[in-house]
């Protein structure tokens, strides 16, 4: 029996999507206007096939991806690690300061999700999803996952991806 046969499991279910508002920051003084996308998530896991003819029960990853999508759905996403954006909050509001604080953009707290990334782009969102998925891969070493690719689509035919390899 060949014990090191690899397979790729691709997961991109209908529910693996979220609608979110954002603006991309291009420089210290340039950013997009606030707008939204219907994002979708496509995950590929590469793993060893066991003697039983399966890689692992990928239901847990499906569940995690769907939960991550739900927490980003119908909300404005703001990055907390962008050098050109300062984010502050009080009891009710989140304020995004841009262009050396010349622009003060207020949001109700309930309408915003702060993410520990540098920009709200498909590149950074795919990295955030990847980091979240790696927590589960590390907790389930028995799944023999060798690599992960997370692709985030901001619309049909437009995506960015992040990768991890063991």
Summarize the structure in words:
With 166 residues, the chain is an alpha+beta fold. It has one domain (6-81, 111-165): Tetrahydropterin Synthase, Chain A, CATH 3.30.479.10. It has helices at 59-72, 122-139, and strands spanning 6-11, 17-22, 35-48, 75-79, 85-89, 93-98, 103-108, 112-115, 145-155, 158-165. The strands form two sheets. Strands 1, 2, 3, 4, 8, 9 and 10 form a seven-stranded mixed beta sheet that branches. A three-stranded antiparallel beta sheet has the order 5-6-7, with no helix packed on it. A hairpin with a 2-residue loop joins strand 9 (145-155) and strand 10. Helix 1 packs antiparallel against helix 2 (122-139). The longest helix is centred in the last third of the chain and has 18 residues, at 122-139. The two termini are 23 Å apart. The mean pLDDT is 93.
Name the features.
166 residues, 19% helix, 2 helices, elongated, alpha+beta, three-stranded antiparallel beta sheet, Tetrahydropterin Synthase, Chain A
Beta percentage is 35-45%
Structural class: alpha+beta
Which class in CATH terms? Answer: Alpha Beta
What is the name of the CATH architecture? 2-Layer Sandwich
**Mean pLDDT metric:** 93
Q: What composes the largest sheet?
A: 7 strands, mixed
Strand/helix succession: EEEHEEEEEHEE
CATH topology: Tetrahydropterin Synthase, Chain A
Q: What is the count of helical runs?
A: 2
Radius of gyration: 18 Å
Distance between the termini: 23 Å
**Unreliable stretches, pLDDT < 50, 5 or more residues?**
none
Tell me the total number of β-strands: 10
Helicity, as a percent range: 10-25%
Q: What form results from the Cα inertia axes? A: elongated
Number of self-contained structural domains = 1
CATH superfamily: 6-pyruvoyl tetrahydropterin synthase/QueD
